[in-house]
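Before relying on records like the one below, remember that each one covers exactly one chain. Contacts with other chains, cofactors or solvent are not represented anywhere in the record.
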Amino acid sequence: MSEHELLLRHASHWALQRQRVCDTELLETALELRSVHDALPPNLWPAGSVEDLMLHRWPSHGQGMPDVDVLAESIDTFVRFLRVTGRMASGSGDPRALAREAHRAAPRMAAACADPANFGPTKSLMAFGRAAGFPVDHADTVEELDETMQQVVAAWNALPEHDRKARMPLAGDRGAVHGTGAGFDVDQSLDGDFEPAGVLERGDPARAAAQARRAPFVQACLQLADWVGVRRKVTATGVLRLAEARDAYAELELWRWQEEVDGITHRRPDAAASRDFRWKRAGDALPLERLWFAAQSAGLVETLSTVARNTDERPVSDDEWVGVSVALTLALWLIVESAYDRSPVPVLTVLGGCALMGSITSAQVREQWQTHPGNSWGPDYRPSGFEAESQRYSDEELTLSLHFFTDTGIWEVDGDTYRLTDLGREFATLLFTYLEEGID
């Protein structure tokens, strides 16, 4: 029995006696969308919530186009049933006003559901896949679904970054209860010194600097800059030419990071295959791109027309080490933020949980991720018959997203418990400010 089945059964019986429309399947979907994305119980209908459901929540996360008139009539029936039977929660609007909301919104719902600007992450990715010619709606087996989604994600990540940013859904997640905060209220009282007051203490500068010096990711970026030296050939888009990229991948042993990724995905069982440079352009090679983009963003490498060079900007003081490390890690965040197969939500969950509670367990991170609207494979989006495979994808995306930051030195893991390092507190402070205010 579903969470709302008993309540809807009573509502259906009540409607039948009064010869009112009550489509329980549509109502089940509506109640589930409100519960998952807005944390609203089925008996709480504040003023404006019906219009929000029909013009925002369903277009952003609901699958398919409902019979709008039937949905409006069913909502009308349901809220009247709640009020008449004494089930309506305090704080709800008048049923007659809620019914008017439904009938006012009905003529606009079809257009809202068809507008890509309203789509959430999953619907945006599926729409992109359809436009690119992938059979995203016709997978008959787990293997076909797996192959199709891999192709869609690969095509998405092959887009230039500015194109991905332009296509990223913005309206689709606006107002979601979890929102960007990954289920945590990350306080909005940020002062001019970038300190999230009352949420997170700044790290000790000396300890943070020592952690930055030891961070494998920071060292890898510095090694890449040394490898670039005085001259390496790049394309017009600022990435290494393919021959240069192959050399960097081998000489800097970047395949080791790819080997770890392949171990997470279980898609290339032959460990030696991870050492092969399998990409057709350097920008698609994530083991290299994560270092290259970060090194450019932090000013360790610069591109001039068709060549790149090491800027010889090396950190010396504690402040410089922390500054370079934070800049490099923020660049990683920007990469993850614009990719569909690596969500920033798990990382923000760790940072937010540690900021508010001092630590967070792996189980708590997974629990937050399971129901977050940013989880494209969460329970709300799983195709019928593919539940187990969808759960595997969900767990895989969680692990990959966290793995992306594992070598940055921003957290420590004791058993299954995450705690921020001093360097991590410095990074979290900057990131919270970036999310709230933007940083040029």
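DSSP finds 18 helices and six strands in the chain.
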